[in-house]
What does this fold into?
Amino acid sequence: MTSFVTGLTCSECGRTYDHREAQGTCVEDGRPLLVEYDLGGIRRTVRRDDLAARIPTMWRYRELLPVEEDENIVSLGEGFTPMLLSDTVASLLGVAQVWIKDEGRNPTGTFKARGASCGVSRAMDLGISDVALPTAGNAGGAWACYGAAVGLGVHVAVPSEAPAITAIECRAHGADVIEVEGAIDAASRHLDGRIAEERWFDVSGYREPYRLDGKRTLGFEIAEQLGWRRPDAIVYPTGGALALLGIWRAWVQLIELGWVEPPLPRLIAVQSTGCAPVVRAFESRAEDTEPFEGAGTVASGLLVPASIGHKLALRAIRHSGGTAIAVPDEAIIDAVATMAREGAVLASPEAAATLAGAVALRERGDLAPEDRVVLVATGSGHKYPEVVERAAGPGG
Amino acid sequence: MTSFVTGLTCSECGRTYDHREAQGTCVEDGRPLLVEYDLGGIRRTVRRDDLAARIPTMWRYRELLPVEEDENIVSLGEGFTPMLLSDTVASLLGVAQVWIKDEGRNPTGTFKARGASCGVSRAMDLGISDVALPTAGNAGGAWACYGAAVGLGVHVAVPSEAPAITAIECRAHGADVIEVEGAIDAASRHLDGRIAEERWFDVSGYREPYRLDGKRTLGFEIAEQLGWRRPDAIVYPTGGALALLGIWRAWVQLIELGWVEPPLPRLIAVQSTGCAPVVRAFESRAEDTEPFEGAGTVASGLLVPASIGHKLALRAIRHSGGTAIAVPDEAIIDAVATMAREGAVLASPEAAATLAGAVALRERGDLAPEDRVVLVATGSGHKYPEVVERAAGPGG
It folds into this structure.
């Protein structure tokens, strides 16, 4: 099959772009482009209940994904991760039901595999030979892994402040690792120069449209795995907010397809108090975030002081009737322990932040006793041995 | 439903035991007990092709699993892991096809989740409140995790020679960790005393029958995911050999059910030259292994110098027309790199040993150019950061 994509539009000014060519951000305003689908055509082609018999990966939503040629799909079995119902965590939170969406079960151990699978597949569609991105966490490893699967050149700028495993994982998969002194913004700036010189394709978050589109599958899965019934709230750990936005777009499209009933589930962004630009902007009713000064948190995936996608994320949170909350690092580490003991999931600190956030939300009344809540556990704790060790406490 | 189990029989002397009570090893000879099923009843109840529509976990084979009451099933979405077809690895090996069975995608990052899911479920059936096992690797973490899911008491003896992550993972899931000076045999001996005192249920490998039975699902999946067609060889990293045996039993049962055609796929055991009791016994045509003196290998899961199950494993390898091979640690570390670069799977050293073994098997003629080969990648490299770092090579 070919795709149902009709084109790309700027999320800010609405200017349209041809998806049959490689595109970056909007030439007018530098904002992210969104992929548009012929939803009417999809509705006529596939029925919601046809999906049940399909492969247990994110590619079960083939018609809703942007890849042109089936042969270009690069899949390592990503997505359709378990939704684990936890009565213990639900009673601990004082809500009706809690599901932990265990994204650590993806290839490379995090939800980043979804963006990489979709992005690398589209790179194959477009005949791209080399891609580049900065990474301080899990995105680099995911792109390196999917790149390895098809021999795509992957160039990763890793800041010296990133955990050691970041560069090691990328190198293990054969990526070209460029080490840059400083933090993620230094790595980004360095890479901008190299990209221009080398004519690599820039796949930084929001800089190409297809990472976001792969992450929409998280939203489709939450709907399908709950029998196409809306949960009351989806709690998401928010750094760049790409996946939060993906979930929002997914549900908007599902409603338009008639596969789920409105309204949207409330989308709730959790950040660390050490880096909470989205929470600050949400609380001050700002349209966009301000760069968060002096950012620092144990949850390295949440360390995104500013992003060209934050404005869109704020719009999504508000549109869904959701909210945003920040939790301190100590609460995140406690939540790693609680999730492992009560929820039987050894989660990354970002993933566990959803539980810490849910506790605080329940206390301030943003989660109610009758609520059915999804905690999106974005990654596996196995990639963060120091944090897990702190959470486990001292030995006997 | 209740189960199709008819009873337990000693793998050595054939003595039978009642599965409705908690059982250990044979009281006559101390050998493992095997679970027997009413395969005729299963054949009349379920058709092979009914399975396609079932949940993508190992519990899709519900009739072939020993749990009595559905409500006792403890599932975190284990099994039905991807079979990744790798043309690159196949051409590198010079064989027709290679699939990597990516077991690192299980809960707790290894195939041990299968045994723990089945074993903990049966413990619930039997009303057991506390279980105990020694662990130098991934079994302890798996039991701790599944125990946490249902509040089962899990007591884990961890030898001081085990990697640090072993005890940390168990503690994170709230298990009672008993630290013992020395190696795995010291931990075992220490635990034997405590088990007698405390009346814990012993779930060491082969000491209860249901871990093995859960691992059979690996064999069912390989068959189903290949369209019920036999691969020529299944290459398995062999420590205690529990899963190798599980795959053998699965295929014997599938043939009896008429779901696959005979003969069996060749089962090939890979060990490290640092601990190769099964390979030695196989090569010397011995019936059982001798304890391997001075054992040591980077692949800690292969560090099983002796086991009450090795005799049965040797029988299974020979019955299938398979073989056994040992590879040095340097080849295992190289294979971690090759699997990450060419196969796009960041594998544990045990998992990568299958690739090192396959290279050696091809060289000595035990794999042929027309062979279709499954490499069982038992665990994720994320649990072995030091090994992955060595495999990745120096940065900069």
